[in-house]
Each structure stands twice: as C-alpha cells, then as structure tokens.
Amino acid sequence: MVTWYIYGNWDKLEKRLVTGFLSRSMLRACSSLRAVARFASEDIKRKTFVSANGLVVAWHPPSTFPFEHTKPIDLQALNPDKEEGPLKEGSLQQRPRAPVNAELKEIFYTTKHECRRAMLLTTRLSSIQIIRPGLVSYAQGLLLQEDYIKKVAESKDKPYSSNYLLCLEHSPVYTVGIRSKVYSDDEEKHLKSLGADFHRTSRGGLITFHGPGQLVVYPILDLRRFSPRRFGVRAYVDALEQAVIDCVSEDFNVSGVGRSRDNTGVWVGDNRKICAMGIAVKEGITSHGLAMNCNTDLRWFSHIVACGIHGAEATSLSRETGSDVSTDMVIPLFAARLSHVFDCSVDEASPVSHISNS
C-alpha cells in the first residue's frame, strides 16, 4: 500500500490524502530501490514521482483531478511526513504540474474513501463478456436484458462480478423513454403503419428509432463492483459517451465528434447525432444503453423528432465516412474503447445462437 501526498502551498486547505494499492508497473519501479522513479506521458512534462519508500508525489493537481477518490487530511499531522520524506520542498518546486487522470490510474487504485483489499481483489480482475444475439425484436431484447440482469445479480456474492455487453441489432422499432408523455394512440398507429413496432420503455430519454444497421449496446453491469472506480449514473453515461467518441473519431477518422452541452449522446458537428443514449439503473445494475448508427437507413428518423431535439438530424458512420460500415466492424473496435474507459477487460463470450423474430 502507498500513501500519496499532493504537495503544494502548505498554507492552503485543499490538500488531500489518497491511499491506494500499487499497480504492477509501480511495484516493478519500486523494486529497483532507486531514490525516485519518474512517470510521464509523451505530451506533458515529468511531474509524478515515487520514492523508494513508496511515497508518491504530485504538484498542484488540475481541476479535473478525481477528488471523489480522496479525503481531507490534517496538515499538522502531515508535517512530520513532509520533513522525513525523501523528496524535499526544493525538488518539488521544479515540478509544478500534476499528472493527468490516465497516469493516476496506472499508479494506484482507490475506492471513494479508503482502500479495501477485498474490493481490490474482487473488482480489479472482473471483466465484461460480449454477447452477440444477432438481429432480435425489441421485445426479445428486453427479455435478454432481464436474463442477464439476473445473472449479474446472482454474482453479487461471488469473488468475481459477472458483467455483460449485449451487442445486437433490432428489427425496426420506435421506442419512447420515461421522460416522454406525448405520442397519442393515433400517432402510435401511424408509426406502426410504417412497418415498425412501437414500445414505451423504462429507460431515460425521449423517442428514438432502432433498426437494422444500428449497433445497439446494452451494458449489463454492476456499477458497484465491476470496476476499481465506483461509477455514479452521470459518470457512467459520460464514460459510455467517451468510448463512442473515441471509437468514431479515432477508429473511423470522423472529425467534429463530441458531446452536446444540453443533450446526451454523441454528435458530429453541431446538429448531427450519430449515437443515442438512454440508460436505466436499478439496485446498481445497468440496463438499456446506446444506439450507434452504422449503416442504418436514416429515412426512419424523418418520421419523428428524434430524442425530442428540434433542428437536429441523424447521421451514421457510413454517411460520415463515405463507405459501408457494418455493426460487425464496429463491435470489436468499440469494445476496445470501452475496455480503456472502464479500465476493465472486454472479451468475446461463447457464441450465442441467433434468435428468430417469429
């Protein structure tokens, strides 16, 4: 176990103490017993240190530093450690910046308030299994989610948590989230007359369309156990969005990809939505998720105000790249991005037989 002190202006009160377990890379570095091992990324100056006695030091963390993983400390009680530590004030003054969050994750893992060895052992090694049911109706998708929610719930007392990523396509369907009170029976009949199903759901969000060529991802995760970091709902949605942003922008070289200030989901430019989000969380277990347009027939969206956002339009990876992008092409790339964001392995499970729509 290491103790990490954020050194700065010692007269200020915002200093925090973080305790955590060393990662494997840090253990290797400390095993050399050198006075200081330095860590840095390619684009920023070296600014993080670990001494031979396991003291990790950073200087003035930025506003994005994950303070939810810290707790206040007594400055007077810290003074003896400061004086006895191998890194003196003069050395610290030469490194005025703190590490980015990605570097912190390589240094130590923490829970919100304190390190618990049991949690480290039961969550750090957990993984997410990819399940590919193929093309299914929306009703069948709901049943699949229920089945895997039960599996996750049943694993709560096991050493390793079970977590799943349902990656599938739906037959044409319009779905309405719990935020929507519109869409009368006549409007519902009209949408059904187009050849699509219509469902009112328990997810968040407003109306959207699902259909062939759209990658629908339902993460069934126990947010309390599957990651070294505990995710709140907002942080969980942000993580999903980030995985999509990284996949679309870096794997498919689409420019202008990002979030909207006022709306969830992932956008290209100011008004082209490429991925919709709508999640549900019950007793810490997630369901529903995201829908990324790959080679979707975008004409289905012309019959609705998707997600209740006027002036916005739907786009797809195929449209943005000018080439045919299938869901099968996207799944492994997105899984890799999700693995990085969640700091958790994402692996293919045993093949699941196709479920017919009869």
Automatic annotation (TrEMBL):
One of its GO terms (molecular function) is lipoyl(octanoyl) transferase activity. Gene3D superfamilies: Bira Bifunctional Protein, Domain 2. NCBIfam families: lipB, PRK14345.1. Residues 159-346 form the BPL/LPL catalytic domain. PROSITE patterns: BPL_LPL_CATALYTIC, LIPB. The keyword Amino-acid biosynthesis does not apply. GO terms for biological process: protein lipoylation. This is lipoyl(octanoyl) transferase. It is found in: Mitochondrion. It comes from the Eukaryota. Transmembrane segments: none annotated. It comes from Mesorhabditis spiculigera. HAMAP family: LipB (MF_00013). Keywords: Acyltransferase, Transferase. One of its GO terms (cellular component) is mitochondrion. Pathway: Protein modification; protein lipoylation via endogenous pathway; protein N(6)-(lipoyl)lysine from octanoyl-[acyl-carrier-protein]: step 1/2. Signal peptide: none annotated. It is an enzyme of class 2 (transferase). Belongs to the LipB family. Its EC number is 2.3.1.181. The keyword Acyltransferase applies.
